[in-house]
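Look over this today:
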Amino acid sequence: MTEAAKGAAAAAPPEPVPAPGRRSRITPEREAELYAAVLDLLREVGYDALTMDAVAARTRSSKATLYRQWGGKAELVVRAVRHGKPGKLEGTDTGSLRGDLHELMSREDDCTMEQNSALMRGLAMAVHSNPDLRQAFREQLVEPEMAEFRKLVQRAVDRGEVRPDCPALDFVVHMLAGGFVVRALIENQPPTQAFLRSYIDAVVLPALGAPTTS
């Protein structure tokens, strides 16, 4: 090599090194397939017995890829649950609070609602004993949905359907979650669209002082 070539080589900038730990891209279809497999495993074995090895085997993925993409089991599970929900509250505006709440209840058929009710009961127990799951659950599911519910109810206040000083305003989500979860404990029956619509009309709307007919 000539002296000029050596000088040019020495002056050339080094080749860039890829950043470590960068997430690999997966298609939306593959992501949906992975989330569905995670939800199936949750229903089969519960959160505590679910392992990343089992997810990798079920989805024919490498465990290293799963960790790169989601960081750990808690993050993966919460994202799978969020992906499996029927849709965001954002954009639900039928013109009345009753219409909005009934619309939300119609997004899942009775079979799916029964499956998700059992899934959420199992996760509720795991949340209490797994700090990582509890944090991910609050950040990615509870807090965003609470914020959207507050907007939905605020529209009802703005329309004059609910008094702004109604003491039940802070407990709308609590009431809805109670109706969804507790029926199985009291009546040994899953929630259904008909039950939840009746519950909204008989309990939630009267507590808010809102009209119970459209």
User: Anything to note?
Assistant: Confidence is low (pLDDT under 50) at residues 1-22.
